Amino acid sequence: MSDPSCDRWITLSDRAAAGGELPAAERExxxxxxxxxxxxxxxxxxxxxxxxxxxxxxxxxxxxALQTSAPARPNAKGGTSRFRSRYGWVLGxxxxxxxxxxxxxxxxxxxxxxxxxxxxxxxxxxxxxxRVEVGAETAHAGTWLSSTQDIRTxxxxxxxxxxxxxxxxxxxxxxxxxxxxxxxxxAVRLIRGRLVARLDKQPSTRTFRVETPKVAVIAKGTLFSxxxxxxxxxxxxxxxxxxxxxxxxxQSGELIAPSRAIIQRGIEIKDWSELAAxxxxxxxxxxxxxxxxxxxxxxxxxxxxxxxxxxxxxxxGPTPVSAFLTRGSRLSVTLAxxxxxxxxxxxxxxxxxxxxxxxxxxxxxxxxxxxxARSVPANAPATATPSSLLARAQTLxxxxxxxxxxxxxxxxxxxxxxxxxxxxxxxxxGELELSELGQPGQxxxxxxxxxxxxxxxxxxxxxxxxxxxxxxxxxxxxxxAIADFIRDYPNSVQAASLRKRIQTKP
Amino acid sequence: xxxxxxxxxxxxxxLAAQGDAxxxxxxxxxxxxxxxxxxMSILGSSLDAEDTTQAILMEILASAATFRGENLLGWADRxxxxxxxxxxxxxxMRAMQCDVREDIEAVDDSVNPPDFDLVLPKAIVEYxxxxxxxxxxxVVLRHVMDYSVEEIAQMTEVxxxxxxxxxxxxxxxxxxxxxxxLSMKSTxxxxx
Lengths: 506, 192
Known about the structure:
The complex is a heterodimer of chains A (506) and B (192). Chain A has 506 residues and is of the alpha+beta class. Chain A contains 15 helices and 24 strands. Chain A has helices at residues 4-17, 24-36, 38-50, 82-92, 97-109, 274-278, 281-287, 365-375, 386-398, 402-415, 420-435, 440-453, 458-472, 475-488, 493-504; strands at residues 63-66, 123-129, 132-133, 144-145, 150-153, 157-162, 166-170, 175-179, 185-199, 207-211, 215-219, 223-228, 234-240, 242-247, 252-256, 259-263, 267-270, 296-303, 308-311, 314-318, 321-325, 330-334, 341-344, 352-358. The termini of chain B are far apart. Chains A and B meet through helix 1, helix 3, strand 1 and helix 4 of A and helix 2, helix 3, helix 4, strand 1 and helix 5 of B.
């Protein structure tokens, strides 16, 4: 670009673009130069085409044909542009009338499929796994849903993006109904089961709520789960932000994270329980999948179906799986009785990745037999296993039958004391004793029992122990336990809460 | 698109604000094409633009109660630009995906040129996508939507000098790409 004429052309056209006025002589010179210089003429046509985008978005996807010896490509927008009315001579002065009309006509006749649908679509599938009904027979990541879509999960999981700022993930055996007809008041009606909602800050003109028969949970920018049990008791666990609660009987309240409430006859605020909150972990992970922007669609099929799919630690659910990801490197596919598969995903530069696996069966019987021989005592019922007892305890807990649940945990501990299930159940039992049964002394024993051997729930057990010590009034031990906890888990949610507690203490 | 008279617009948007489904549909039909253009040019990608168009239309319907009878398209444009910029920021678009300093040899020559004298090898949206977000927004608001530098400054909450700077740098960057591609095409044509 060493040609001084081209340099001048660039300077003048930039000045015009930045809002400067040009004398008539310079405007004429610009137009003349664009006609005889292929580079400046080509650039001028590019700017001219940009001006037509508002009327013809499809132009953006076209390559620009530049006719070096001919005038610039016509501008179909006509005289509606202020910019072009001032500087149109720069951009396409020499455009022929006939070419203008014919090109404009041809372009206007073209349909743009992506903008032809009249309905505003507010919700689309972000991820779907296993058996899920969402209206469309073959729904996948990206499937648009209607504003009143009913979503039913059986053995699967589903995450729905509502606009670009709300994610709703539905657990297994759940059902929810979208109510998005009114753009000012979005609602999701939970009919059964559990969902997690993750929201960015909503515009002041919009509210979002999750409704159950007992309560409406009204949120603006927060992360929470709502569980509806068979007796219509609603449990709200608030992980971040704050929500307002409004019951069917017009009682209202507010929650600030981390907190939880059970709504049955009224609003009952409960202590935050890390263990109970851990039940949301799978959905919390799913809810962090990307709602919009540049994403890669991952589809995973297995033979047999139902294998659990994880990408970098986020459980997407049982196969068949279809989910949007922004990144991901390690794909794991596991199914009991089959060899697990792990592979690195080649996602770079792709819009869609499909993986299909035929899982190889393995003979697990000897392993199971050996495990049971190790852990089943002589007096255990022939049909009881650690996992069946744990499942029974969890069911009782979800039904709100806390005493029976505690008894089930204790039975598990008594009959299979060396099993993994029994070890984990010590923390669950401690939480139950502390939060629901008012037995802090026993809770302390349960947490201490777990901590003697340690394990993945050490942090939860240590936090539970601190709370038990607080209730028991053993302040010196509590202070020491808090200091140790903050030192070992400085960035945890619990540490933040404990720091606050220390600061507010007189 | 037919621009509704002020009264008609006010009535239409008012009905849409009250939740009238027909009015909402009508408003969406009127604006969708234009909003798609804005989304696509600001985001620089037709894939993302579809999502953003939906978000823009949602914002328009949700904000319908704030319409006071001013120019409908101007009002909708402002919402669209705001929403599209927010989307672009959220996406943290890979800045300078196709760096202008890239080796000329790396330019994709696989595109077969049609029977024109010269054809730019990339679609217009791909050139826009080469700009960093702030520059792209300035170029789009100026050249696609015809806003003045002062109006752009107001919309993007920066000074007019910053807008000029972004605009001129964006233009310079696009210019280098366009001219490089043009010279490549000329070079490839000349031996024939």
